[in-house]
Write a structure and sequence with these properties.
This protein is an alpha+beta fold. The protein has one domain. About 20% of the residues lie in helices and about 50% in strands. The chain starts with a helix and ends with a helix.
């Protein structure tokens, strides 16, 4: 009977180790396919409001005890550069409570051979989200769409349909420490 307990104990220990390994390595992917109305604005300047839309298609990877990562596309209707290939976004939970950066590879290809003629890396914005993209905040680098820029105060909030809803959402992000 002692030998049977040892085998059972060893088997249970091995199963537990395998379960822990699976939970730690598995990234709990969630497919995302959303379109939100959005408002681009400068806080304190209601005349700066411009309506746009944001479409997300991809996968949110949610590993336990690690930063979340989004692979796919985030297209902002207003900006042509967002139709280019996007680098994966890592939402760093230790930096401003979930900060990420949207980076696009805006390549130019040769019409005949299909080879890359010019490779432009465009850092579009800082990004924060709530939940599984329940809402988003973009702090755009200016000039928008240039190879390099500087974050000032031009923002896009989604979902939002007017200045007041965008400011209310912005306030929620600030209360969570997401600038």
């Amino acid at each position: 009977m002692t030998r049977g307990l040892k085998i059972t104990g060893s088997s249970l220990l091995m199963l537990l180790a395998i379960a822990i390994l699976i939970v730690c390595k598995y990234d709990f992917p969630k497919k995302i396919n959303l379109t939100y109305p959005a408002i681009e604005f400068r806080p304190g300047n209601q005349a700066s409001v411009d309506k746009t839309a944001i479409t997300l298609k991809g996968t949110l990877h949610r590993k336990l005890f690690r930063d979340q990562r989004f692979t796919g596309e985030i297209e902002i209707t207003k900006y042509e550069v967002t139709k280019a290939r996007m680098m994966p976004i890592v939402f760093n939970k230790n930096i401003n409570n979930g900060w990420g950066v949207t980076v696009y590879l805006n390549d130019t290809y040769d019409a005949d051979s299909g080879a890359v003629q010019e490779m432009n890396i465009v850092q579009l914005s800082s990004i924060w989200k709530t939940g599984d993209f329940d809402s988003m905040k973009f702090l755009l680098f200016e000039p928008v769409g240039a190879d390099s820029g500087q974050g000032k105060d031009l923002q896009i909030m989604a979902p939002a349909t007017d200045y007041d809803s965008a400011m209310a959402l912005d306030q929620q992000y600030k209360e969570q420490g997401k600038y």
